[in-house]
Amino acid sequence: MNEIIDKYNTNSKNLGKAEQPSLDLNLEHSKYANLNDQLAEASLRLRQMRGEELEGLSVEELQQLEKNLEAGLHRVLQTKVWINNSWNKSMTSNERFFYSFPRHHSFAALFSIYFLQSSQLAEENMQLRNQVSQITPAAAKQAVADTENVVAEDGQSSDSVMTALHSGSSQDNDDGSDVSLKLG
């Protein structure tokens, strides 16, 4: 009789174990649930970076998202400049400007600084044009003679440049200085 009771108890314990999932299976389910949560969070962040599903975000969260996007864009610009610089050793002023720009500045600051830089370059360009217009006609004639039949980058021949120089102001500023232009 004791044998029968022992067999019954042993079978009862085994039936309980069969219904209970194994510890390894519980661990796998836990990992799976954790990975699903991480995937959902990453998908939401990606959609928010694209400008989707922003309705529930606070102002602080939106500002943090903006900072993250600006930092990412700055890294993209740095990489672009680095790639351009690796095959072209001389960087342009715009590339130097973007490469050296601190990442914590906002887009508005970036564009206002860029606008300021472009207006300074335009002013410098105007000063250089004024200096060129003050060259004496004799010096201009010598410069054109040195580069006869050369076509400029904008498609004008040296004859049309000479005509443009002669049609300008005919001030006679002969101060005895030796001025020459090299076209390039």
From TrEMBL:
InterPro entries: TF_Kbox
Domain K-box: 25-138
Record-level Gene Ontology MF annotations: DNA-binding transcription factor activity
A GO cellular-component term linked to this record: nucleus
Chain residue ranges for the region called Disordered: 146-184
Protein name: K-box domain-containing protein
Source species of the chain: Eleusine coracana subsp. coracana
